[in-house]
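Q: Structure tokens for this one, please.
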Amino acid sequence: MKQAEKIRWGTERRLEFIEFRVYWEGGIRRVDLTDTFGVSVPQASSDLSLYQELAPGNMVYDSSKKMYVATGQFSPKFCDLSAEKYLAYLKDCVGEQLKLADNWMSQIPVAETMPLPNRRVRSDVLKKLVAAVRKCRSVEVSYQSLSMDSSERVWRRISPHAFAFDGMRWHIRAFCHRDTRFKDFVLSRCEGVRNGEAQGCDPAEDHLWHERVDVVLQANPRLKPHQRAAIEEDYAMVDHRLTFAVRKALLFYFERFLRLDYPDEGVPAEAKPLCAVNAEVFLVRAS
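A: Here is the predicted structure, written as tokens:
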């Protein structure tokens, strides 16, 4: 086993922190470690020395700046330094949502996120549904369906086995004992959970959930050549294509979220920058 794999979790977190600061913020001082993690100065010095030992050539001490800085041969060893990860941190710092990630940024650039309405999910309901999934149980849920004529909530028995996020809202994937088929239920429309019983179904039979299909995307051919080139560069397409393996149960949401369901006629090409090469896969409609 490599030495880097034997270190304690707390130490490894500090090594990740060192790497993040050196790469993204131009350097790190001992005080950064003592302030962030509450460790002693000797421990901070030990962590910096350990990082240099385990990632030789990544950073050096700059006496003029009185800090450790990255070298030209820097290569990440302990954490993901991708742009996607940094932007996820940034979004977590400036957004209005719950702050879940450790904020390792000391110099947060000016940024803003677009405010979006939150769907209310009751924690007591979610807790019981999570337990039902873990314990393979069926439950009754008080649910308001938009497809029903009545405005009253209806108790229906479901056997939940998975959760799904469609880009905007969370669903519970479950067998509906009333409709005798697997369906999606919007979590924010579940107001109550009661009467846990045996599962009464086999989640393995939810073929739309377990089976995946490749959706191949390309820039909309109706765009001008320079526009198509820009879209291909945006999404880092290879050979003008981008492929996703999507659960059949999520195809409807995937198509709608990326506006792939927009008609080709009567809609500006810019409003539909992506289109599916194999659009026939969307003929598989999940409930």
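A few notes: Residues 123-203 form a domain with the SH3 type barrels. fold (CATH 2.30.30). The mean pLDDT is 89.
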